[in-house]
Design goal:
The protein is built from nine helices and five strands; from the N terminus they run αβαβαβαβαααβαα. It is of the alpha/beta class and about 240 residues long. The N and C termini lie far apart (about 40 Å).
Length: about 240
């Protein structure tokens, strides 16, 4: 199995993804994982404060990380979750930071794309998030603001977006996918500049001022992970 491939007696971390936290069998799964002496710690995905608190209380092993959606326009974790994770020594790994490649110079100054014009499912999903948040016109204003910040630091919009996420207190890392040959989704080269600068107060204020003009996604979508909850017929409860 995995331990043999890694040539390790124990696995440092195993991550549990449980889309619907209303189905509380995730607690039984965590208890079962905690009985395995070959594991050192566990991680979870899109656990809100209630679910994470219960998981921590029920598990013998430490919950080392919570992987959540976080971006300039999706700031749902910043209300309750990030402070809670800091207090309980749980690292937060942020995904969705680049909105499927939409936070890129590639989309600056362009008309709103149709879903069929987007070349990956992540972009289609996050395009719906953009529409829920504030629409394409406001998103263009955000891109313009982030482009100005990027020019100031001789970076790109994508790097500024990653830097913004990393500078939120409690965020330990960002998870960014890469699609070679797609300029909007290949940040492998430019990411080298991520740790060569920091956004100053002026940068953060400019970005956050535009981001705050959009809607509160917690009210539009629900709490962290609500977009993955499905009804019995398989229909998402929170359709983007």
């Amino acid at each position: 199995g995995t331990r043999q491939l890694l040539r390790a007696d124990k696995l440092d971390m195993v991550q549990l993804h449980w889309p619907d936290l209303n189905q509380t069998a995730y607690i039984d799964t965590l208890r079962w994982l905690c009985m395995d002496e070959r594991l050192s710690s566990l991680a979870v995905t899109n656990f809100n404060v209630h679910a994470l608190s219960r998981a921590i209380d029920e598990c013998r092993l430490p919950i080392s990380a919570n992987v959540v959606s976080l971006s300039v326009i999706d700031q749902r974790p910043m209300g309750e979750l990030l402070p809670f994770c800091r207090a309980r020594s749980v690292h937060v790994f942020a995904y969705g930071v680049l909105l499927g490649g939409l936070l890129s110079e590639v989309w600056l100054g362009r008309r709103e794309p149709l879903d069929k014009e987007l070349d990956n499912l992540s972009a289609v999903r996050y395009m719906k998030v953009v529409r829920r948040w504030g629409g394409w016109r406001l998103f263009q204003r955000l891109l313009e603001t982030m482009a100005a910040v990027a020019f100031k630091h001789q970076q790109t919009i994508a790097v500024v977006a990653m830097r913004w996420a990393l500078q939120q207190e409690g965020v330990s890392a960002v998870i960014v996918g890469s699609r070679l040959g797609n300029p909007a989704c290949d940040t492998s080269a430019e990411s080298a500049g991520l740790f060569t600068f920091e956004l100053d107060d002026e940068d953060l204020s400019a970005i956050n001022a535009v981001a705050s003009m959009g809607r509160d996604l917690r009210r539009k979508i629900g709490d962290i992970g609500a977009e993955y909850v499905v009804e019995e017929n398989g229909t998402p409860l929170a359709v983007f």
